[in-house]
Amino acid sequence: MATSEAVLQTDPPVVQLTVQDGIGIVTLNRPAKRNAINDDLIQSLNHVFVTLSQDIKAVVIRGNGDCFCAGLDLSELTDQSITGGIRHSRLWHKTFDAIQFGDVPVISVLHGAVVGGGLELASATHIRVAEDNAFFALPEGQRGIFVGGGGSVRLPRLIGLQRVTDMMLTGRVLDAPEAERIGLAQYVTETGKGFDLAMELAAKVAKNAPLTNFAVIHALPRTAEAAPEQAFMLEALMSSIAQGDDLAKERLRLFLDKKAAKVRG
Predict the structure, then answer these.
(1) Cys staple from 44: which of 15, 97, 195, 265, with CB 3.0 to 4.6 Å?
(2) Does residue 41 contact residue 91 with C-beta atoms inside 8 Å?
């Protein structure tokens, strides 16, 4: 049975957490504002991911209403000081780090606008499922601002510096198939089908050995960015730790005894 709770006492709650069969479902809940991220929402997201129950093995994050997230609520920038701006940006960094480098893999369901801060949020997730009505943009250049939620760090690593430069300078908008082609999304599905696919993927992820999932979300991105000699050593250490886990030994025995499913095309 699913359980549900509102995160932070806002009315209505700007983020909702539901748990179903070991999968956490996080819903951005500002549909009238296209789920634009204000302080309440970013603080709620941070609270969700730093206090996640150990019973949750994977998370699906989605947006209520017509879009995933239209970015920063620009009304929050009014008369903000430089110091306030730095603190605001660092809160976003802290929150998205808690998503990317938390305890469990996170899958995002992207539909409608995935724009600005919404794209920064999506880039912090590990698997991105785009519905075919999703569109992706970084309109900060047209707004007279600059990304502040980690987009200048994560997005060039995902799709390359020149593509991010193009999006920010020209306001270029990408559709879902193009987003999949360049690596912003790993899956594209029909409108309305993204959540079901994300839950199917999350169920598979949740069955993995927890230590393997931890290695994938923590060690893999670091080996990918490290110098080869350091990366190879980190890989050797992580693989040795993973294969020494009791659950790994049990699963290997099942495979050797021909009791585990084989990989098939």
Answers:
(1) 15
(2) no
For residues 118 and 216, the answer to whether their CB atoms sit within 8 Å is no
What CATH topology corresponds to 210-256?
Answer: Lyase 2-enoyl-coa Hydratase; Chain  A, domain 2 (1.10.12)
Q: At residue 253, does pLDDT exceed 50? A: yes
Structure tokens at 242: 């993973």
pTM, to two decimals? 0.92
Question: What is the Cα–Cα distance from 2 to 58, expressed in whole angstroms?
Answer: 14
Q: Which one of the listed residues 5, 120, 180, 235 is annotated catalytic?
A: 120
Q: Which fold has domain 3-207?
A: 2-enoyl-CoA Hydratase; Chain A, domain 1 (3.90.226)
- The three-state secondary structure class of 84 is helix
Q: CA–CA separation, 115 vs 71, rounded Å?
A: 5
Tell me the C-alpha distance between 190 and 206, whole Å: 24
63-96 pLDDT per residue, tens = 999 999 999 998 776 677 889 889 989 999 999 9
For tokens 């960015």, what's the residue?
225
Confirm whether 140 is a catalytic residue.
yes
The three-class DSSP label of residue 152 is: helix
| pLDDT value of position 143 | 82
pLDDT digits (tens, 9 = 90+) for 181-190: 999 999 999 9
Query: Does residue 254 have a pLDDT over 90?
Result: no
Q: Annotated catalytic residue: which of 5, 76, 131, 140?
A: 140
CA distance 18 to 3: 5
Per DSSP, 37 falls in state B
Active site residue 250: no
Write phi, then psi, for 101 (nearest 5 degrees): -120, 40
Q: Helix axis angle, 161-170 relative to 151-159, nearest 10°?
A: 120
